[in-house]
Amino acid sequence: MKKIIFCAAALMLMAACGNKKQELVIGDPVYVGEQTIVEVNEPSTPNCPAYVVVNNPEVDLSAFPIDEEGYHILFNGNEKMQGWRGYGKEGIPSRWVVEDGAIKFLGTGLGEGQLAEGGDLIFAHQFQNFILELEWKVSKGGNSGIFYLAKEIATKAEDGTLRYEPIYLSSPEYQVLDNANHPDAFLGIDGNRQSASLYDMIPAKPQNQKPFGEWNKARIMVYKGTVVHAQNDANVLEYHLWTPKWTDMLQASKFSAEAWPIGFELLNNCGGDEHKGYIGIQDHGDDVWYRNIRIKLMD
């Protein structure tokens, strides 16, 4: 699979590009401001638009403390949310705040209709093999998600400028949901949109979620393509990336090659050729809280 590497000098792609139109013609160079970056290659999935993978600056993980179990502490109540920023943005969107030692998204009630002051949040370091642990809770009827192996992807907008595509097109999603009150819990197949599920692909079983307003513990292990989701200290699913079975699961989901070519292209090789990417948490328009976020490297 041909990939497109885009080494951006600035965090804000749209700001860096200004109003200069980016045609993304196969084989042509791409510019950020006046700087030539790299030529555009051809995706392997039919009808997939040309795209670039934006490699923005990353934080130095050695600046984050390690606990007695060998986990780097990515968030422990710090008001400045050190190391975090908006997906495709330079800073932290204003609707993400710290409340009672947790990162909280101030819901808009608009579902996926994100506002400029919202958007998904990522930790600005790409991980390959790891165990991620955190706690989450949602408001009544709340919806969110935890992303991993995510990339920042840009395509050409209708006006010819570059724009970021949604994070979920490049990243598997650990679903965060109020199963009792959000309609997504009753959609999909066999509960594969309920909490801790691999969204729209594999249901979490047993389904041991605590109700809205209570803290749930999430654990995600990624190791050489093997992925395990756990919820409240019980393993609830396992799958294997970059395999024929993974491709088949994508093809049977909403991210099929026919329904969503760019999603199929990116997810089929999620993490890119280096098999690494960002972790992130989702703005889905509802109040959601995350705390005690830590990660152990398994490289």
What does this protein look like?
The chain is mainly beta and 299 residues long. It has one domain (61-150, 167-297): Sandwich (Jelly Rolls), CATH 2.60.120. The protein is built from three helices and 19 strands. It has helices at residues 13-17, 244-251, 261-268, and strands at residues 5-6, 29-32, 35-39, 52-54, 72-75, 84-86, 96-99, 102-105, 121-123, 130-138, 143-150, 152-156, 162-164, 173-177, 216-223, 226-231, 234-240, 278-281, 288-297. The longest helix has 8 residues, at 244-251. It starts with a strand and ends with a strand.
Secondary structure elements and pairings:
Elements: E1 5-6, H1 13-17, E2 29-32, E3 35-39, E4 52-54, E5 72-75, E6 84-86, E7 96-99, E8 102-105, E9 121-123, E10 130-138, E11 143-150, E12 152-156, E13 162-164, E14 173-177, E15 216-223, E16 226-231, E17 234-240, H2 244-251, H3 261-268, E18 278-281, E19 288-297
Parallel strand pairs: 1-4
Antiparallel strand pairs: 2-3, 4-12, 5-19, 6-9, 7-8, 8-19, 9-18, 10-15, 10-19, 11-14, 11-18, 12-13, 15-16, 16-17
Brief description of this entry?
The protein is mainly β and 299 residues long. It is built from three helices and 19 strands.
- How many domains, as an integer? 1
Helix content: under 10%
Q: Which spans of ≥5 residues are poorly predicted at pLDDT below 50?
A: 1-19, 32-39
Assign an overall shape: globular
The CATH superfamily name is Exo-inulinase, domain 1
Overview features:
299 residues, eight-stranded antiparallel sheet, mainly beta, disordered N terminus, 19 strands, five-stranded antiparallel sheet, 3 helices, Jelly Rolls, 32% strand
